[in-house]
Amino acid sequence: MNNFIFQNPTKLVFGKGQITLLKDLIPQEKKVMVTYGGGSVKKNGVYNQVKEALKDHDIIEFWGIEPNPTIETLRKAITLGKENKIDFLLAVGGGSVLDGTKLIAAGIPYEGDAWEIVLQGQAKESIPFASVMTLPATGSEMNTGAVISRTETKEKYGFNNQYPEFSILDPETTYSLPAHQIACSLSDIYVHVMEQYMTTTGQSRIMDRWAEGLLQTVIEIAPQIRKNQTDYNLMADYMLVATLALNDMIRMGVSQDWATHMIGHELTALHGLTHGASLAIVLPATLRVLKEQKKDKLLQYGERVFGITEGSEEKRIEEAIEKTEGFFRSLGLNTRLSEEGIGEETINTIAERFNKAGVTYGEKRNVTGNVAKEILRSAL
Amino acid sequence: MNNFIFQNPTKLVFGKGQITLLKDLIPQEKKVMVTYGGGSVKKNGVYNQVKEALKDHDIIEFWGIEPNPTIETLRKAITLGKENKIDFLLAVGGGSVLDGTKLIAAGIPYEGDAWEIVLQGQAKESIPFASVMTLPATGSEMNTGAVISRTETKEKYGFNNQYPEFSILDPETTYSLPAHQIACSLSDIYVHVMEQYMTTTGQSRIMDRWAEGLLQTVIEIAPQIRKNQTDYNLMADYMLVATLALNDMIRMGVSQDWATHMIGHELTALHGLTHGASLAIVLPATLRVLKEQKKDKLLQYGERVFGITEGSEEKRIEEAIEKTEGFFRSLGLNTRLSEEGIGEETINTIAERFNKAGVTYGEKRNVTGNVAKEILRSAL
């Protein structure tokens, strides 16, 4: 086990009717900007609940943070925040709204252009922020990370701010989510776990068991959600698994991969592919290309998550990868680039970008541009 | 799933050589009291590491916090702390030292007698405290709880303070732990998980999986620790499983039991039985007496933790309980009261105490004095 420091101070406020607690969770004296995406929170009743809970607070609203939030939109929010001397931000919506809000929070006290913060990778200063999370997926509600896109250059990078002060998760807010959005979010959750798990064996028995428990949960709930999206306990598990998949609790003392995410981000940046959809294509291909390196963990994964115990090691590994791809297909997602009309040209662009930037990913830092090319080719 | 709020702000500082970080973790301007138990920290080198790390801090020492820390000892520490205007406490040792320190931290700013805080159940004020944990067991390093004994009346009660500011866990400090202490601590860890897990099914898939993962880990590492107590990764898992068993992470939105602990505390208070040893006797008996109520969870537990899938439900439940008792016996612990020379008289005293206090435990609050009597009789 590697040395580690774990400290996650976010207050997770979970359950039915918890949005009313906003009243006391945000200090009365704060000047609050509430940030939103499109209009879905008006349809599902969340907007009215937030308005009611904050009726005695001094608030302004900012609308229009898009999926894969762009620096172009966020600059407008930062300007508005500076003008109004905002000192608390509340993101209401999905992971994109909160990711964008993490940059607004860092951008308000920052003198330069906020894209610089993204490139620096870590915000040095921030006003406090919190969330009412309505789409379980990114885990942004209980971590420091955010991913921001820049339209003009088709770039998409992650950066870190501090943790949210609190996040309110009411499973009832997920009852009206579109099926495709749920499918993409389940893919995202699954791959978050895999990025922290599918490395080498023997680092931590507990982290392995906890990661496997999350994967088993996602596999178990996915078909049930398709059948009944208004089962409270089911949707509560869905919401909680998203948070626990990426709030540092399954990464204590273990190495991490993240190659799938970094390659996936490129597909989103270049082709506008939904984040979860991009991962469903890249993960199985990554496992195929790196199956020798990840051999022991693939065998453990196959046995513990899918119950694969028979046949040669090679056969069991193949089966584990097939089951993984099968899981994504069961969500109704494509797992091949050709199904999305993506071909060699994009693959070459991504490989060149990685090579030019000199970046390498994966737990062994050996996923170079050329390896990324090999992965993407095997996903054609 | 029940509504819940989770927030655990403790900084967990884990790994080899991390004690040196004390230097920066405790603010330089603090007047620090370092609290210790007996002399084991002098033998395993921890005392010297702490002294060296804090050589530029203004510190005093308090020695002699005993296993099952007593109010009588802690009052002395509180007086010393008040006299010296102590505003930061560092507990160095096992769970008892830290539990005692949690009361010292609440007692220093308190005007009355500190036993009142224990009876109130929740400290209203406290100075900050932290720990260097050298015995994995109680989870006290990352939770708010503490258990304090009163010698003169043979009472033992829990109370809550705030969370530790930080806890440093270096697995190398466990290399020299006595085998019996490790056995008792593994029992304690196992039962902590069971108190939060062995209730009713269907509350949270994730919490179930995470609890089962911890139980599987304890079962897997116990025999290996007996063979080689200086395997770093093994002892790291041992140390981490203790913390994660009782730091709120496996109790999100689920009911809890705690009857075994409350009955066990009485055995410790009346007979001086080591905490972990008392639990090894009480848990199997509790499962036997409450097997109808806990039927579904016992079946799930049997299958997922011990791989019991064959035979009638009744047979599988019996086997799960036998395997549980067998696990404690494999640790070298007794699982029967008679083996400890405890009989009907003590059983009656405990039943009377529960009845007199009007307390009830268990996830259904139906473990009255009479049920406790039945449990203890079945453990004779």
Describe what you observe in this structure.
The structure is a homodimer of 380-residue chains. With 380 residues, chain A is of the alpha/beta class. Helix content of chain A is 49%, strand content 13%. Chain A has helices spanning 22-25, 40-43, 46-53, 71-83, 95-107, 115-120, 179-197, 205-227, 232-245, 259-271, 275-289, 295-306, 313-330, 344-357, 369-378; strands at 4-14, 31-36, 58-62, 88-93, 129-133, 145-150, 155-160, 166-169. In chain A, the strands form two sheets. A six-stranded parallel beta sheet of chain A has the order 1-8-5-4-2-3, with helices on both faces. The radius of gyration of chain A is 20 Å and the shape is globular. The model of chain A has no long low-confidence stretch (mean pLDDT 97).
Which descriptors would you attach to this protein?
homodimer, 380 residues, alpha/beta, two-stranded antiparallel ribbon, 8 strands, 13% strand
Compressed to H and E, one letter per element, the order of chain A equals EHEHHEHEHHEEEEHHHHHHHHH
Number of helices of chain A: 15
Rg for CA atoms of chain A: 20 Å
Total strands of chain A: the figure is 8
| Average pLDDT reading of chain A | 97
Helix content, binned percent of chain A: 40-55%
Secondary-structure content class of chain A: alpha/beta
Strand order of the largest sheet of chain A: 1-8-5-4-2-3
Shape of chain A: globular
Low-confidence stretches of chain A: none
Oligomer: homodimer
Most extensive chain contact?
A-B, 44 and 44 residues
> What is the strand content of chain A?
5-15%
The major β-sheet of chain A equals: 6 strands, parallel
Distance between the termini of chain A: 37 Å
